[in-house]
Amino acid sequence: MQKRFTTLALVVLSLFLFSYSCQDHVVPGIPPQLKTLPFGGGQNAKCSLTYTVEVTDVGTIPVKEYGVVFSAVNDGRTFVDNPTVADNIKVIVALPFVAGPKSNAGPQICTSRISYRAYAILQDDSVVYGNTLNYNDD
Question: Could you give the 3-state DSSP secondary structure of residue 90?
């Protein structure tokens, strides 16, 4: 009888541990990693810029939008050193969000000073930024 009770207890304990180990656990997502690359534009770089963002790691959180956000003297806003998507001009890059560099031309704004960085708006509306680059022709 004692052996039968011990065997039954081990079976019940094993089933309990097995069922607990198979539960789904919420794993936090990994945000993407972005790198801001120097802008292009040739001879007329102060007025017509092409911005490039490099996705170095796509992460595990879906991205709704990405590109480069910038602040420039003469863009109609107050110049800031670290532009954000909330208050500055965005140059959106077409989806899909994949690893590697992607570019898009920005609006024609003639300026002598610009600060810009890559951004990605995630599914939960949080924002991830890349490094900030600056151009100053003063």
Answer: strand
Q: Residue 59 in contact with residue 30, Cβ under 8 Å?
A: yes
Give the separation between CA 133 and CA 138, rounded to whole angstroms: 16
pLDDT digits (tens), the chain, 138 positions: 566 656 666 665 565 555 555 555 555 799 999 999 998 765 455 678 899 999 999 999 999 999 999 999 888 889 999 999 999 999 999 999 999 999 999 988 888 889 999 999 999 999 999 999 998 876
Please tell me the distance from the alpha carbon of residue 31 to that of residue 129, in angstroms, as a whole number: 10
Pair 97, 63: CB distance under 8 Å: yes
